[in-house]
Amino acid sequence: MVYIDGALQENLLTVNKRTMVQIKSFKDPVKLMYSYEQATKTIIIINKEKKLTVRLNGGAKTAQVNAKSVPVTIKDGRTYLPLRFLSEPLGGTVEFSVV
């Protein structure tokens, strides 16, 4: 089970042994600022505290946190990124436990 900000994430994917979550799962208005560049069809997520930027270009197979790239999966019109890739740069933590 995966929880983000206390909410159970039901729409997960596993791709190449990575847990993928929807980009919309991260909604912290205090830490995060979302914007969209229409001309380049780019989603930009900025962590205000850590001064990090995630860039996701429409139709691209990768996303970037500053200069680091990570694979993107698009399924049923939804964009998925690796959980650890999104959570840690954006100020979260990832913990695993066996139930």
Draw up the topology in text:
Elements: E1 3-4, E2 7-8, E3 13-15, E4 18-22, E5 32-37, E6 42-47, E7 52-57, E8 62-65, E9 68-71, E10 73-75, E11 78-82, H1 83-87
Antiparallel strand pairs: 1-2, 3-4, 4-11, 5-6, 6-7, 7-8, 8-9, 10-11
Please provide a written account of the structure.
The chain has 99 residues and is mostly beta strands. The chain has one helix at residues 83-87; strands at residues 3-4, 7-8, 13-15, 18-22, 32-37, 42-47, 52-57, 62-65, 68-71, 73-75, 78-82. It has a single domain (3-87), classed as Copper Amine Oxidase, Chain A, domain 1 (2-Layer Sandwich). The chain has 1 helix and 11 strands; from the N terminus they run βββββββββββα. A 5-stranded antiparallel β-sheet has the order 5-6-7-8-9, with no helix packed on it. A 4-stranded antiparallel β-sheet has the order 3-4-11-10. Strands 1-2 form a two-stranded antiparallel sheet. A hairpin with a 2-residue loop joins β1 and β2 (7-8). The model has no long low-confidence stretch (mean pLDDT 80).
Distinctive features:
four-stranded antiparallel β-sheet; single chain; 99 residues; mainly beta; globular; five-stranded antiparallel β-sheet; Copper Amine Oxidase, Chain A, domain 1
Radius of gyration from CA coordinates: 13 Å
Unreliable stretches (pLDDT < 50, length at least 5) are none
| Number of separate domains | 1
Average the pLDDT over all residues and give the rounded result. 80
Topology-level CATH name: Copper Amine Oxidase, Chain A, domain 1
Biggest beta-sheet profile: 5 strands, antiparallel
For the record, what CATH class applies? Alpha Beta
The number of helical runs is 1
Helical percent range?
under 10%
Q: How many E-type strands? A: 11
Structural class: mainly beta
Q: Architecture, CATH level 2?
A: 2-Layer Sandwich
End-to-end distance: 9 Å
Q: What percentage of the residues does DSSP assign to strands (E)?
A: over 45%
